[in-house]
Amino acid sequence: MTEGFLSQDEIDALLRGEATSSSSTPELSAMEQDALGEIGNISMGSAATTLSVLLGRRVSITTPRVSVSNLEEIKGQYPLPYLVIEVGYTHGIVGTNVLAIREQDALIIADLMMGGDGLNPPTELNELYMSAVSEAMNQMMGGVATSMSTVFRKKIDIAPPNVNLIDFAVASSITNAVGTDDNIVRVAFRMEVEDLIDSEIMQILPIDVAKEMVDSLMNAVQPPAAAPVAEAPKTADASSSQAQTAKAQQQVAAASVAKQHIQPVNVQPVQFAPLVQGTMPVTDTNIERIMDVPLQVTVELGRTRKLIRDILELAPGSVMELDKLAGEPVDILVNGKLIAKGEVVVIDENFGVRITDIISPLERTYNLQ
């Protein structure tokens, strides 16, 4: 192009439908962008629910924004360390889905999963914290695949995600699924985790994968085509008259059936016989048949709950505090059910338990529930 005018070669290229420069990019239509936004809304809503269960915190992922970009442009706009989760579709859709969240947000998620409060997250993602975040991302993307299966009305399977920490400011590439200058679809979401995270996450899709998702959505919501009804040829007036008579008879029969269906029905409230409280007789007539059935008897000193972090820090000599007070009776369980309480004694060189109390039938019934 010279002085604002197209050259003859450029005009010929336009007439042939060819691109006039390498900067021209295939755009998504407004309908396709809306469809991708709706898909992202539903799938990431499922991911938010999954993450909320894992963290025990309220998580919301809202306001998708769909645009066409490329990886080089994204790196320039977000020169920050990101945790990149790359998921390959193995069934239903062919291609790759990339999810990117900021490293700082990933650190808070890791701290919450390890039992922390998220207020003082670690400064770096070591192997342990990376494993925790990877499991959270795996569960989230699994929820995304499940919701997409429901929306598309076909099975969608994914491979285990590949998680990497990438600094967009210095990295040469974000993913190998597409080239740095290739066009991609970026769906940006706002993610909030109570008062700990208020950030943006990105979903990066190759153009062909995005269009395949749109096609799957359109095919799922398109109503089935009605089967064509063939009309019988009119061969003669007598045949036409017979057909009209048969049609009239069918209409009369249908009206008769409809009239029968709308006849008033006598409806009465159901009445039950009064309940009589009684006791079930106990008999030992056949108890001898099960006398040789073995039962597992367990004496439980106490219980406690620990965080993953506390379990990993256990070492020889560590002391674990239980929920029983000193001198409090221990629980005696048969096949895992509490039946009695007792006190620990020493018989020669072995431990034993002296039964001090038998659980009443009412308490046993409560424990079974």
TrEMBL record:
GO terms for cellular component: bacterial-type flagellum basal body; plasma membrane. SUPFAM superfamilies: CheC-like (SSF103039), Surface presentation of antigens (SPOA) (SSF101801). The keyword Cytoplasm does not apply. Keywords: Cell membrane, Chemotaxis, Flagellar rotation, Membrane. It is a peripheral membrane protein. Residues 288-359 form the Flagellar motor switch protein FliN-like C-terminal domain. Residues 31-67, 130-164 form the CheC-like protein domain. Its main location: membrane. One of its GO terms (biological process) is bacterial-type flagellum-dependent cell motility. GO terms for molecular function: cytoskeletal motor activity; hydrolase activity. It comes from the Bacteria. It is found in: Cell membrane. The keyword Nucleotide-binding does not apply. Belongs to the FliN/MopA/SpaO family. NCBIfam families: fliN, PRK08119.1. This is CheC, phosphatase, inhibitor of MCP methylation / FliN fusion protein. It comes from Pelosinus fermentans JBW45.
